[in-house]
Structures are given as C-alpha cells and as structure tokens.
Design brief:
This protein has 293 residues and is α/β, with parallel strands linked by helices. The chain has eleven helices and ten strands. The relative contact order is 0.10. Bound molecules: nicotinamide-adenine-dinucleotide.
C-alpha cells in the first residue's frame, strides 16, 4: 500500500528544514534542500555538519555514516528542482500566503505521483491541500524541534488524504526510527492543542500573581515531573510562535478557553520572544538565565 520513497525535497532551510534534511539523509534518503536565501542554505549545511559531528562525538553516528549523509544532501535556490522528488516536505516560514505560493510554483514541475506535505504547526492541511491539484496526495508531516532529538512525528490527514499517502509517509517515519502519531486536521493537531493551553495557563498564573517565573517553572518540574518548566519551554519555542498557535486555537475553535493571555501578547509586542531574542520570561544575556518577573 505504501509508495517507494527514495528522494525527498525540503523547502525552507531554517531550524526545522535543516533538521529534517539531517535526519532524512542519515536514514539514507537523497535530499534536495531549497530556500529563497542563499545564506540560509549555507548556514543550514554548516548547522547539519556541526550537529552530525556532535552525534559522531557522542558515539551515536559513525564517521562513515556522517560522510555518507552529507553526500546525500544537495542544495538549490531553484524550487522547480524539487519537482522530480518522491516526497516534498514544506518547512518554510509559518505564513499561509508563503506556503500557498510555494505549492503553486511547484505544481507545474511535479511528477504526477509526488506526495506533498507541510510541516506547519497550525495551518489547516485541508485548506492548503484544496489549492493543489492533488489533495488526496497531500498531508501534514509535523516534526518536533529539535528534529534530530525528538522522537515524535505527527502525521495529519486532510479531509481528502488517501490511505496510500498516509502509509507512504508512515513508512518514511518508521525508516527514521521515529514514532508517528496520527492526528486529524483540527487546529494545532494533538501536541500543540494540549501543550499550548498549558503554557498559556502558566502565563495566566504569572499574570494573576499566583506565582513568580521561578516558582511556576519549579512547581511543574518538581511537582509534575516535567523536564522543563512551561515558561522556560515557551522561551525555547518562541513566544511569537506560542501566541500564533493560541490565536489559531481561539479563532479555529471559537472557545474563550483558548484566549491568549494578555501578558503573552505584551511580551511579543515588546519583541521579547524568548531565547532567539535573548529575552523572554528569562533574560539570557548573562551567564545564567535570570527571570524577568
Ligand atoms: P525558520 O524561520 O527557522 O525557517 C524558515 C525558512 O523558510 C527560512 O530560512 C526562510 O528563508 C525560508 N523561506 C521563506 N520563504 C520561503 C520560500 N518562499 N521558499 C523557500 N524558503 C522560504 O522557521 P522554522 O522554525 O524552521 O519553521 C518552519 C516551519 O516549521 C513552520 O511552518 C513552523 O510552523 C514549523 N514548525 C516549527 C517548529 C519550531 O519549534 N520552530 C516546530 C514544528 C514545526
């Protein structure tokens, strides 16, 4: 029932795209990686080399496997070059107009049986699929960050996704040595549907003065055995991303329980987006993270 997939096109060479190229090449798929930015492609290759070298250093990957994986990755600035691949994973910026334009530009160059997927965290798979010529061969392929480390991949069926497409993607996840969770196409799928309201509630707990940043994170680490506190995790994900996902839940499910906390909005308005801007619920500019509230 599954299609034989050998070549994979990855669109977008940011933190997710380079991780996806990395794990696919290690699993012996040929990978073609594209981006609109030449610098992003160069940075992605350097990042993949560094991350593979770290895995070699820890004894998790052999030197030969690293060399072979790097040889399987090619980069291009031309999106049509991905047309002859068996499976395309779109991992570009989380904006619907960007993703739609990518699929539109790619369509005339595709083989008839190429499977199209998106790594989107929140945009409707059914809506993205409906604007292509192959909604039955379209689905969500949602990796977690950081891709080489996290075990789960959510596979999201749009309303039209056929069984062969699902089984083909599931076989790819199996070859990666990762675990697939099947999710239906409703706002934020499974992981973020559950995780983001918890993070948002942690921000409300801070906003209402129930606890400080430190006591909230410590409570969930020591009291619920979470490896990271919810505010620390929010900083890692990016507060803009957290807010965007809460807005998708709020708009898509029309339930006030998904109302983004005004304090989360305020941090995003300040440009305090977490680790990537060196300030969020913690300040990362010194030697140790210091709570900002
Ligand atoms: P990022 O900003 O690190 O990378 C996005 C890349 O897309 C950039 O290099 C950008 O130059 C490129 N890009 C933009 N427009 C393009 C186009 N038209 N063609 C080709 N490349 C283009 O973002 P990211 O964190 O890697 O996220 C990418 C996708 O993965 C998003 O859909 C996001 O929702 C999803 N995702 C992110 C996470 C996370 O924790 N960051 C987790 C799971 C899924």
């Amino acid at each position: 029932m599954a299609k034989d997939i050998r070549t994979i096109g990855v669109v977008g060479a940011g933190q997710m795209g380079n991780g996806i190229a990395h794990v696919m090449a290690l699993a012996e798929f040929d990978v073609m990686l594209t981006d609109v930015s030449e610098q992003a492609l160069k940075d992605a290759v350097t990042q993949i080399e560094n991350n593979l070298a770290r895995q070699v250093g820890r004894g998790k990957v052999s030197q030969e496997a690293m060399t072979a994986a790097l040889a399987r990755i090619s980069t291009t600035l031309s999106l049509p070059d991905l047309g002859q691949t068996d499976l395309v994973i779109e991992a570009a910026t989380e904006r619907e107009s960007v993703k739609q334009a990518i699929f539109e530009d790619l369509l005339p160059h595709l083989k008839p049986d190429t499977i199209l997927t998106s790594n989107t965290s929140s945009i409707s798979i059914t809506r993205l699929a409906s604007r292509t010529d192959r909604p039955e061969k379209f689905m969500g392929f949602h990796f977690m960050n950081p891709v080489p480390v996290m075990q789960l991949v959510e596979l999201i069926r749009g309303i039209a996704t056929d069984e062969e497409t699902f089984q083909s993607c599931k076989t790819v996840v199996d070859k990666l040595g990762k675990t697939a969770a099947s999710a239906e196409d409703f706002p934020a799928f499974i992981v973020n549907r559950i995780l983001m309201p918890m993070i948002n509630e942690a921000v409300y707990t801070l906003y209402e003065g129930v606890g400080s940043v430190k006591s909230i994170d410590q409570s969930m680490k020591l009291g619920a055995n979470h490896p990271m506190g919810p505010l620390e995790l929010a900083d890692f994900i990016g507060l803009d991303t957290c807010l965007a996902i809460m807005n998708v839940l709020h708009d898509g499910l029309a339930d006030t329980k998904y109302r983004p906390c005004p304090l989360l909005t305020k941090y995003v308005e300040a440009g305090w987006l977490g680790r990537k801007t060196e300030r969020g619920f913690y300040d990362y500019r010194g030697d140790h993270p210091v709570p900002t509230r």
